[in-house]
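Final report, Chapter 2: Outcomes

The project's central promise was a pipeline that accepts a single protein chain and returns its three-dimensional structure in a standardized token representation, suitable for archiving and comparison. That pipeline is now operational. To close this chapter, we reproduce one record exactly as it appears in the project archive, with the input sequence first and the structure output second.
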Amino acid sequence: MRRICGWLFAVAVAGSALNGCKSGDSVKQHNDGSASTPSSPAPSSVPLDPATLGAVSGTIHFAGKAPEKVKIDMSMDPVCSMTGADNFAEQYAVKDGKLGNVYVYIKSGPPAAMLSGGPTPAPVVLDQTGCKYGPHVIAVVRGGAVEFRNSDSTMHNIHTMPTVVGSQPIDISQGPKGTPQVKQFNQPEVMIPVRCNNHPWMNAFINVSATPFFAVTDADGHFTISGLPAGTYTLAAVHEKMGEQTMTLKVEPKGTAKADFSFSAK
């Protein structure tokens, strides 16, 4: 009799476990019937000791003659053509042999850096003014947000085209001087293209970093990444046309490592 009761109890426990593992627990259903897998949680942050933090600083150089700037015809939209200024493509932001609009980020490093966290920063602004996106290249930390604005007196569109699995594209329109829209970015990715469906010449790039350690070079090609725990790192520099370069460097406590890159047009 005891053996029979024990067998019945085992069957009941197994049945409960099976009933508790429903398909809906692993795949969430949206109201529109589509399904998505739950997003993976961000790694737990590791507290940093301010007394040991260093930095990396450098300049992105451009070797050779910079490509000629390409003038953009905006006459298809009367509002855009009345901006009163010439509009040039921004693929190569070269000034005195230095390269702007380069995304620089920590690609790998000690766990103290790769698992570093902190308060969620304010959204990074990407504005549409003069029928151009500005800034041309921006970056946010994973879980951060971008505030899309339209400061023009014409209709614009924001269309992102991510390539990383799990990243959802954005495709929204904004009326003239419309209400800003804030969108969150949760998947690390480099150089996500942003386009305007209404004005095909408009383009920008959004970068999402897995850590809070990143920068975009200024007009003089300079960048600085601060608050790094001591250790050995792989630093990456990415340009929208010339691709990615990496280097290995060591950051000493309270020290600043030097990191210069050089790109050339292919």
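Archive annotation: The helical segments are 2-20, 78-81, 111-114.
This record, like all others produced under the grant, will remain available to the consortium after the project formally closes.
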